[in-house]
Design brief:
globular, 5-stranded antiparallel beta sheet, alpha/beta, 37% helix
Length: 269
Amino acid sequence: MVNNHNSRYKFYDNVVNFLRANSFDGIEIRQRFEKQSRPLENKDWFIVVLQALANKFVDEGRSTKREKLLLLVPLTLVSDLATLEARESILGISRAADLVIMDSMYFVRKSVVEPPRHHTALYGIRSSDERTINYVANFLTARGCPKEKLIISVSATVFAYTAIDDSYINIWTTTYDKICSMISRGYRVYRNKDNNPEIDGPDIFNVREAKEEFRYFYEDPSSLGTKIRYIKEKGFAGISVWGITDDDFKNICRQGRYPLLNAVKAECR
C-alpha cells in the first residue's frame, strides 16, 4: 500500500470515513516489523503515511467544521532504544502524531538469565537502567517528543515468573483478581522504591516443572496512583492502560468493579 500513491490516498479516505461513520475520535497506527523488512525504507515510508494522514485530518476538520480527528502512534520498541532509533523516527512521529504512546509494558526482561522484574517499572535499581518509564520518557523527550504529546502506557495484566532449571521464565500471565485471592489467603505484598507491588505466591498454572513459588508482578490502585502523579509532575500528556480485560470486573477484590480503571480515573481528575 505505501508504495502506491493511489492506494495510500484511498486508505486515508477510508480511515476518515470509517472514523466518522462510527463516531470515533481518532485512530491508533503502529508500525509492524517483519523479519524480512527493510528498516530504513520502512522508517521513511511510515512518516510519509503518518504526515499525510495528519494533514488529511486537518483538512477534513476544516472543510466539515468538525473537531479534528486524532492520530495516535505507539512506540513498541522502547525496551531496546538502539533498535528504536534505527527503525523509527522519533522526531518524525512526534511531529505528525497528536499523541505518542510509550508502551512501557514491554519492559519485561530480555532473557531467561535475568532476574524477574516489574514490566512497567517507574525507576530502575540503577539510574542507567534503560527499561524504565523515567529513563525512556527522558530519552524520547530529548529526541524531540514534546512532553505534552507523550502518553505513558501501563498494563493491568499480571506477569508471573518462576524458577525452572535454575533460570527464570515469564511465560505466564493472569488477572488482577487472582492477586486479590492470594492476599486474602495471607500472601504478603512487597513493594519496591517506586511503589510497584509483587507477591511470592502459589502456582495457579499447574506448572509441574516449577522449582519454587511464583513471583507475581502487577499494578494496583496505589502503584497506578504513584505513576499518574509522576506523569502530572513531569507534564506528560496522560496515561493509557493495556490489557483492561485483566481488571476485576466482578468485584472479587471487594474494591468495587473495575478497581484499576477507577483508580486511574480518580487520580487523573
